[in-house]
Design brief:
Blueprint: E1 16-17, E2 21-22, E3 28-29, E4 42-47, H1 54-59, E5 62-70, E6 77-80, E7 95-101, E8 107-113, H2 114-121
Parallel strand pairs: 1-6
Antiparallel strand pairs: 2-3, 4-5, 5-6, 7-8
The protein binds zinc ion.
Residues 30, 32-33, 35, 70, 72-73, 77 line the site of zinc ion.
Length: 122
Amino acid sequence: MSRTGLGQFGVMPPTVVREPTRDSEDIHTCPECGHPVVKSKGSQRIEKPDLVHVALAAAFDVLVTFGWRCERHPYEIVMPMRVGGEDASAFVDGWTGVEIRFSDEHVRHVATPEREVTEHVE
Ligand SMILES: [Zn+2]
């Protein structure tokens, strides 16, 4: 599976979406290489997100989420912070939870700015 090179032609390959792992010292690490990703915490972009909700899937080419990323790979790996459900306001005001299919085929809620969802879908 080669994901490298596509960017040269202006085609962004889909971002690999993985669950963050933690090492024995409770530090967030990349699930693929084990590198600490703590410093990357913040807003991340997921290219071509595999959104479960059909209307959302049609509306989003790029999903903004909150979490970590690892830059040690020829492709993008984003590890979204997991939220409990659609109500992500406990996480931060103005953000909501959307269901996305991770690269391991599991479906989980991740946080995204609420205004992005309302702008795209209404
Ligand atoms: Zn990595």
